[in-house]
Amino acid sequence: DKVYFTFLRTRLEPIIIIILSIVMCAASFQVIFEGVRSVIEDIGYFRNVSGYAYEKPPIDINPAAISIMCITIVIKIVLSILCYRVSTPTMSALAADHRNDVVAAIVALVFGIIGSKAIDGEIKPKELSVIDPVDAIVISLYIIICWIPQIRLHIRNLTGYTAPSQLLQQLTWIAFHHSPLVRKIDTIRAYHFGTHFLVEIDVLLPNDLHLGKAVHVGISLEQKIEALPDVERAFVHLNCETTNNNANSNSCNITDNQDRQRLNINFKPILRITCGFIVVSLAMAWTAIVQHLIYSTGPNYSFTPKPCSKCQKFNNITVAWQIPSYFLIAISEIFANITGLEYAFTQAPTSMKSIVMSLYVFTSAVGSALSFALIPVTVDPKLLWMYTSLSIVAFVIGIIFYVTFRNDDIDQNRVAPEETLADPPKQGDI
């Protein structure tokens, strides 16, 4: 019903793709689990473990099955090509699904034939038949790697991610050259609304302009912007003032930390969050060192049973060794957590700040839930390895985070300040 769901399609497409991606990843994880179990059983079978009640099942690959697989591969290739020719997010997701099916079918067919011939003894050694479940694991990992970016992309679009700088520059040029009555562009906002963009532009008109002419300028500019293929809806706000009170928008006259610019420091949000991961990795590494010192100090060392009532309960080491750990953790919170809150709030559109902030805070709840998984290892003498593992994991996740999101580390000054917009940009600069 278009009366109640005006923009249903632009939101429904990303939701459907996210659900499809999650289903594909969940199915792939199940295949990985079954593949690992099959590999373990095959290893036990080939080692001839006594009492091992497992018989290697045959792999029946006959000409009919091979023919069906080949026909399926050809059909999937054709469907993938047809889907790629339609430039919509849904068809792109279907094209990626068909492409993954082609890769999976080819690999499964080749490895299945090799495994079947190895079991029948036509290929030596016979242990080569384990390649069949291994290829299932590899294919599943490939599918997960292909679908995770789809989940990330469409969740970003649903939460109102900022439009690319090319679109903002194009909108700036259109607004400047729309009418000679446009004196100045005060603010330009453009953000994702599902698969398309919502655009808001604040233009400054002469103080003595007739109301009818002003309305005509605004409506005609909205229609011109909505004619762009990626724009869902445009809103033009008319004003005659020269001040901008919206400090949270991606506006043309915003200045981002002038003191930092004077020092020529460009410490972007994603880089700051990455530094937070690195610093917390150092904090856990230092904590592991302190724990090693505790286990290396008497009188109890790493002796885990409870001491007698008259024995000294703690080792002879000062608590001051823990100060650097708390200091580094506090620094990492400033880099990662505070920057994340700032980034989530400033990059979200006005109408979606509550949703985006709720999603960000939800990650803290997920982290608290995951901490329960570490309860079994928070006992002596496992603490040393727990802190060491946390240090390694934090460092690796920090690197993965930066590699994955470094392209989103946008400069807040990617749109020129208001002073530079006094002269309209040239079309060749867009």
TrEMBL record:
Keywords: Membrane, Transmembrane, Transmembrane helix, Transport. It is found in: Membrane. GO terms for molecular function: monoatomic cation transmembrane transporter activity. It holds the Pfam family Cation_efflux. Its main location: membrane. The keyword Zinc does not apply. The chain crosses the membrane at residues 12-33, 64-82, 102-119, 131-148, 270-294, 323-345, 357-378, 384-405. GO terms for cellular component: membrane. InterPro entries: Cation_efflux_CTD_sf (IPR036837), Cation_efflux_TM (IPR058533), Cation_efflux_TMD_sf (IPR027469), CDF_Transporter (IPR050291), MFS_trans_sf (IPR036259), POT_fam (IPR000109). It is a multi-pass membrane protein. Gene3D superfamilies: Cation efflux protein transmembrane domain, Cation efflux protein, cytoplasmic domain, MFS general substrate transporter like domains. Residues 10-155 form the Cation efflux protein transmembrane domain. PANTHER family: CATION EFFLUX PROTEIN CYTOPLASMIC DOMAIN-CONTAINING PROTEIN, MITOCHONDRIAL METAL TRANSPORTER 1-RELATED. This is Cation efflux protein transmembrane domain-containing protein.
